[in-house]
Amino acid sequence: DGIRSVSVLIYFWDNRDGPKFHGWWFGPKEGSQLVWAYNSSNCSQEDLTVPTSGWMCPRDGEVDQTLKITTHEENEDTDGQKDTD
User: Fold this and answer.
1) CA 76/CA 68 separation, integer angstroms
2) Beta bridge partners of 25
3) Is the Cβ–Cβ distance between 9 and 27 less than 8 Å?
4) 33 or 84, greater pLDDT
5) pTM exceeding 0.85
6) Where are the alpha helices (DSSP H) in 1-85?
7) Is the four-CA dihedral 56, 59, 60, 66 of positive or negative sign?
């Protein structure tokens, strides 16, 4: 009881609003002023791969070394079964 579900979107924002906003963001929707994490890695238009580490959380804080991004395929168990989360 008391547990809520929150949708989180990882999105890339280009440099249209300047270098301060250029990068990867965690938020409830694209372009939201409410954001939880930021990463300035992989900002080249040629390499738009979501960074796996280096996320600042909160967005204006220090890099959170415990925050890691993995793909669904990287979460495969050793028996070949995929995570269902």
Assistant:
1) 16
2) 11, 38
3) yes
4) 33
5) no
6) none
7) negative
Q: Would you call 7 exposed, middle or buried from its count of C-beta atoms within 10 A (0-12, 13-18, 19+)?
A: exposed
DSSP three-state, residue 55 = coil
Q: What is the per-residue pLDDT for 80?
A: 54
User: Do 59 and 42 meet the contact criterion of CB atoms below 8 Å apart?
Assistant: no
Q: Which token pair is 71?
A: 């793909």
In this prediction, residue 75 has a pLDDT band, given cuts at 50, 70 and 90, of low
Neighbours of 20 (CB within 10 A): 9
Over the stretch 8-52, which tens digit does the pLDDT of each residue have?
899 998 888 888 888 999 999 988 889 999 998 877 777 788 899
Q: Label the pairing between strands 37-39 and 9-13.
A: unpaired
- Residue 6 backbone phi and psi in degrees, to 5: -125, 125
Cα–Cα nearest to 29, from 48, 6, 58, 8: 8
Quick check: 21 and 32 in contact, CB under 8 A?
A: no
